[in-house]
Write a structure and sequence with these properties.
- 2 copies of one chain form a homodimer.
- The first copy, chain A, is an alpha/beta fold and about 200 residues long.
- Chain A has 2 domains: about 45 residues, no CATH class; about 120 residues, Rossmann fold (3-Layer(aba) Sandwich), CATH 3.40.50.720.
- Chain A has 7 helices and 9 strands.
- The longest helix of chain A is centred in the N-terminal third of the chain and has 11 residues.
- Chain A starts with 7 loop residues before the first strand and ends in a 15-residue tail after the last helix.
- At the A-B interface, helix 4, strand 8 and helix 7 of A face helix 4, strand 8 and helix 7 of B.
- Chain A binds a DNA duplex (22 and 22 nucleotides) through helix 2 and strand 2.
Chain lengths: ~200, ~200
DNA sequence: ACTTGTGAAGGCTTTCACAGCC
DNA sequence: GGCTGTGAAAGCCTTCACAAGT
């Protein structure tokens, strides 16, 4: 809405876009202070500014991707990863064959250089795109190198330390949710059976 | 637990593993019928069977990936996508340079063949790994080809029809959650300021 | 003795509805 | 007239605690 130049929005309008009740929108926004103007609505630019700050997206985050296989390269290029607050500034891999490979924006460097890269590039976050078997070790290396948090795409349980929170993404969950949302197979014969 | 040959488990044990209260575990499982045995616990094999059925993972799902860039290839190989109920059986791309490319398990085929592939291979689900600009069109093609549901990785709003539910994965959300979970920066000077 | 299943209590979240303000 | 902010009411979910069962 901001990028379309709209200036104000009501809780009613937001509720339609976000599929929530208008009262919910107002209760939630009121938590952040009196952002709205009675009789008028909310100032969009003001909302964006306040929310950006609350969500801590008012500062940039520099990231390093560990594991430059298909997933690592895909994540490095992922639209969302290079917009707004997030930028991938480096990628590392243990395989010497990958060193120097250009991944649009940076070239792949040796895993061994991780600590130096984190220091020199001012890296804040690490992304794990390694096989499950290498996940824990890679997390430990990232922590030792000094990152503040890690996003893990490896399908593995990783033990984290409080100084570097870990968030794991399990893509299987999405498949399971999708399958569960599928309409039931039509009943083979009888015309009106209530779905229990 | 099942794969380790354990036979029984108590709500207490499950609560520790899942980080929920034992009462919650019991309430939830009781919804599915009386699965436990008083004084004894739950039969693990029985639980797995019941949950697999409830979550509709007792049948296989065949998938086609649309877009064979880094992300598409990564998803095709993703551990989770080829275990248990889910199998990627085909990948398509509009780029003729990619036709015939081997992606471990299958070769890339023309986007044009989508309808035929869905029919011949008995494809149930589609996965969108295309640029945002191609997301809607690709979804529509998948629906026309006859898939029952679509998982979308493109950072785009896609309009879905009820016959083919859409689930979109926005990886930026994970980065935002990770950042929000980061410990606050230490205050620059004074020794005890309450974090407000 | 041990553990489930479950009413009842407690706590939390959402919705209602309207005073207050533009 | 229109819209926010918010107490009060309603609704929902979690926890408690114990009877019932092995």
């Amino acid at each position: 809405m901001a990028s379309q130049g709209t200036e104000r929005v009501s809780s009613q309008q937001l509720s339609e876009r976000l599929d929530l009740s208008a009262a919910q929108i107002r209760k939630d926004l009121a938590q952040l202070g009196e952002l709205g103007i009675r009789g008028v609505g909310y100032d969009i630019a003001g909302l964006v500014e306040r929310l950006t700050k609350v969500l801590r997206l008012d500062q940039g985050y520099r990231m390093v991707v560990v594991g430059m296989g298909n997933l690592g390269r895909a994540l490095s290029a992922y639209f969302g990863f290079n917009h707004g607050a997030f930028v991938v500034v480096a990628g590392v891999d243990p395989d010497p064959e990958k060193f120097g490979l250009d991944v649009g924006g940076f070239t792949v460097r040796p895993l061994e250089d991780l600590a130096q890269i984190v220091r020199d590039e001012g890296v804040d976050l690490g992304v794990l795109a390694v096989p499950a078997s290498a996940a824990q070790e890679s997390y430990d290396r990232l922590v030792a190198a000094g990152v503040r948090g890690v996003l893990n795409f490896a399908p593995a349980q990783v033990q984290a330390v409080p100084q570097a929170p870990l968030k794991s993404v399990d893509l299987r969950i999405y498949l399971e949710e999708l399958v569960f949302s599928l309409p039931e197979d039509a009943e083979p014969d009888s015309s009106s059976i209530s779905t229990e």
